[in-house]
């Protein structure tokens, strides 16, 4: 017969092992979410398509948030399944799982934004549509900054690239892309650092692990509606041919004013 103390010890070990790999889904309309090593907080900007579209995960003593989209995960924002809007951008619908939270005021100063990111899988579309962070102000498609990863053309052996859409005074946008030799979708943590200058003219500088992705680039001030917000997570165009299952993790989000 198994002694009660041995049975208790086995059950306790199993329970601790389960808790060590705990993942906690974030409700579609959760309150503000943050962590002890973040100085930023965010919440779902729209209803998420699934319960596990965003979830807290604890792994190897680290707590982080995971976003994931599967094929057909249509977002809950008003434009995501709006046929007229999507026809304008040549897509059947939008897939989305994002958090949004306030950034800074348009003070004329520069700000440093940094976060750890891990591209677990996916982000392999030939089309350049998968966004992993945005800086927005007005609740429209006029977005000052969108950062994307994709454009692989893997079927023809092409390289992947990061790309940045920067808003213009007209209805268009400036598109800047940067090829990458090493595949960042490697299930490893990377450090993204952003220098954002505000004022009459805005500027953006972006690096990953100290490697420059975007040299300092100026673009118009499009902060017309108030205090801007950071969006993290995945936002991409739907594809009738099917999208891959994409997963990305975020941790240690820090935002601060740059000392002059």
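^ structure tokens above, recovered residues below v
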């Amino acid at each position: 017969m198994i002694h009660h103390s041995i049975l208790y010890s086995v059950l306790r070990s199993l329970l601790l092992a389960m808790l060590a790999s705990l993942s906690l889904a974030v409700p579609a309309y959760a309150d503000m979410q943050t962590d002890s090593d973040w100085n930023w907080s965010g919440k779902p900007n729209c209803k998420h398509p699934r319960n596990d579209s965003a979830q807290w995960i604890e792994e190897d003593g680290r707590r982080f948030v995971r976003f994931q989209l599967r094929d057909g995960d249509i977002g809950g924002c008003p434009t995501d399944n709006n046929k007229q809007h999507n026809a304008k951008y040549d897509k059947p619908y939008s897939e989305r799982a994002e958090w949004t939270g306030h950034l800074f005021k348009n003070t004329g100063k520069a700000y440093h934004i940094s976060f750890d990111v891990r591209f677990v899988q996916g982000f392999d579309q030939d089309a350049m549509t998968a966004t992993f962070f945005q800086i927005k102000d007005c609740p429209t498609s006029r977005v000052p900054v969108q950062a994307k990863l994709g454009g692989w053309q893997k079927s023809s052996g092409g390289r992947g690239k990061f790309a940045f859409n920067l808003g213009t005074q007209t209805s268009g946008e400036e598109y800047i892309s940067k090829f990458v030799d090493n595949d960042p979708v490697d299930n490893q943590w990377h450090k993204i650092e952003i220098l954002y200058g505000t004022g009459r003219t805005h500027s953006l500088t972006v690096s990953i692990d100290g490697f420059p992705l975007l040299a300092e680039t100026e673009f118009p001030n499009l902060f017309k509606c108030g205090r801007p917000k950071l969006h993290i997570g995945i936002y991409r165009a739907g594809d009738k041919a099917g999208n891959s299952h994409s997963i990305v993790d975020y941790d240690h989000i820090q935002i601060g004013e740059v000392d002059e």
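The chain is about 10% helix and 45% strand.
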